[in-house]
Amino acid sequence: MRRCIGACICILAFAFGSDAALAAPFSFAYPKVGLGTPFTVSAGGISAQFLSNGDPYGFHVEPSTFFTITGSVLIDSGISPDSNLVIGIAFSEAVDSVSFGFALDSTVSSTLYLLASNGSSLASESSAAGQVPSGGVIAEGMMTFSGMPFDELLIADPTDPAFAIGEITVSAIPEPVGWASLGLGLLALAEVRRRR
Fold this sequence. Notes:
Helices cover 20% and strands 47% of the residues. By secondary structure, the protein is an alpha+beta fold. Strands 1, 2, 3, 4, 5, 6, 7, 8, 9 and 10 form a ten-stranded antiparallel β-sheet that branches. The longest helix has 20 residues. The termini are close together.
């Protein structure tokens, strides 16, 4: 009986432990400050390519000077002659949620927009309002989105001249192999128990 319980714990730890590692934070701390789009960052076995309609160097990595975003940010560089730039993010595999802090070049409440697609199909869209924090001078906020699987994001602020985003965290879709392993393990345990 002890072996049966031990085996069950091992199988559960494998199946659910692999799911726990599916959250991947893409930090801009490791690319060098000043690095401009396009560039690729990897985390948790997923790669994310960051690009912009103002490339080359439409957005670049800078230390955060914002109240609610720590570390480094990806910010409109001001070098591109284009205004109202868009950040595109292409993931190496489908994910089902994303969250990140943002700052908008606005002294009043403003909105950031997000379009999520899977291949060429629109998966969903979302928006988040930014508010000027107490003691701050520009609108800041948090975008959290989950829904249908997606592998590409477009992030835009069409009403303000520039914006910045902080570290991005995504959740990958659990692979069926982990669940299949769990099911087979439980069936094997049931068979062992039946024979006793």
